[in-house]
Amino acid sequence: MFIDIxxxxxxxxxxxxxxxxxxxxxxxxxxILNMAHTAFYxxxxxxxxxxxxxYQMGVLPxxxxxxxxxxxxxxxxxxxxxxxxxxxxxTVMIVSVALAMLAQEIFxxxxxxxxxxIDPVIKGFYELSGGTRISGQHIFxxxxxxxxxxxxxxxxxxxxxxxxxRAVAQDAEVANLMGIDDRKMCVIVMSVSVLLAGISxxxxxxxxxxxxxxxAQPIVIVLAAxxxxxxxxxxxxxxxAVILGYVETAVTFLxxxxxxxxxxxxxxxxxxxxxxxxxxxFGVFFEEERL
Length: 291
Description:
Blueprint: H1 2-30, H2 37-53, H3 59-85, H4 89-111, E1 125-127, E2 133-135, H5 136-158, H6 160-170, H7 172-177, H8 182-204, H9 216-229, H10 234-254, H11 262-276
Antiparallel strand pairs: 1-2
């Protein structure tokens, strides 16, 4: 059971990590609370299902097409809806919730409320010592999400574009004076944010089930992870996602009926931490830098 919790926790944490980093990134740069973030995760999963099941595409082409289509849709949504009202955080939040609900109802209309499965990208199981079996899809999810998160860290910390994005996140006005186009940076960051959500969707869809409500539970955990780690801290969001991902997995395995309690326990941990440290584990005060 320890190995099961370890591997499943890694896969779950990787999914939440990609989603939380994307959510924290767009918030840090564009100050957008995108409540539709996990809706793009759902859209990518459904596009992957359609590409594989309806059009009989190969797995890798289907994943690529699904993620790219989701990124394009995310940029369109940003230009049409978010960019116009991004100075008003409450309005952005309401608009994003409306978009997520719209996506949900469209998928209910097209596919109904049934749960649909996707064949694993890597089929079969691998047996470890002690008789524990690990699915190839879980190994693929752990390796792919870890590689992508490492790539995002290197991109933000080691490239000129990453430094420009960090500059806009710290102070957009000063970045503009230095010749950095903050509007362009916001579009790029939105693309990367949706890209991470889309990758998470196509990687995790074969492990779980694809259905029109699959966006709702992850957004709660993502918000909790970002707040737990500290609003504006991308590294904190990732660490918060790992903590809550393992908490949810452990509760699911160890507590009877834990699959219904995992999210509640994760939120309880977030509340307890915030009572001791209101800015989160790695948060900064509002007047300090956000990255």
